[in-house]
Predict the structure.
Amino acid sequence: MNRPAGNPKRPTLRQVASAAGVSPMTVSYTYSQPGRVSAETAEKVRAAARKLGYPGPHPAARGLRRGRVGTLGVVLGERLSYAFDDPQAARFLAGVSDVCAAEGVGLTLVPITGAPSDAERVAQAAVDGFVVWTTSDDDPVLDAVADTGLPAVVHAGPHRRDLPVIGIDDRAAAAAVGRVAFAEARRPLVLGFPLDRSRARQLLTGDEEPEVRFPVTRHRWEGFRDAWTHSGQRAEDLRLAVCPVNHITEGETFAAELLRGTDPPDAIAAMSDELALGALRAVASAGLRVPDDVALTGWDDSDAATDAGLTTLAQSLRDQGAHCARVALGHPTHASPRHQWHVVARATTTRRPR
């Protein structure tokens, strides 16, 4: 549909009504309630619309009049490409999109840059509700989402302004997989996620008390530390290698660096399968054997973990994404906000989960 060269602005409904010789209400009914308009009148309206280059009422404005836009917003808390680069985020978004497809609802990704404009971007998003991918305790977009008054849910935390949180008990899960990873260890290591939004790469020990603002990192680190200290071991003998990004190369690089050091780890528990698979590469490059020289565990039970024979923590991020979407769209759900998980023991550890 082409607009006349001399009329670059979007034609209005009133202009179409004038050209067709009908009332504006008749034009509105032609698009919104066609059963109330005769076929002959409807054709006059559409002919005038084609001549003027009028595409019909704006979908967003029409949705706002109905009280619904027909779109669910997902706040990533990350750059937009994160949705496609991070395997965990991709699985979660697949679950969200499953529900959107079933409901005939669109999906809007709302990226966060860390700039003051983030709150404004959330406030101006034309959506019916929000799903917030796990973020930091101090992320201002949580208040921005709550201030909209729209249905909203947070995946895996943090808790803020009575927004519901859906996920697993990360601390209990980490303690369970940690007991398997550290069963015969003397120099255990955790390959972990960032502590806060600065994403600094660092090496810590279990007796340190850093401020951990990402709830997922905090709870998993607490669980791994529980697994180690509850067996009578000293907290300072457990190390945390903080990776700035969740990527296989980062896991490989950090693990390789420590394996070459004076106190190489003999057990590595990773907070994701990606980090664990990177560590698996590093162990092989160092000429060491898994699990004889280094026990190794991951998290999420990805297809790649199965192929590699990796002991891991299984959860369904797809199911969690679908649950979040249903809540954010205002659908009643009686499912527990705490989803199930279990340890999957494979060839990279010697101990079976209890």
Remarks:
- Residues 1-7 have pLDDT under 50 and may be disordered.
- The chain has three domains: 13-57, 69-166, 170-314.
- Residues 69-166 form a domain with the Rossmann fold fold (CATH 3.40.50.2300).
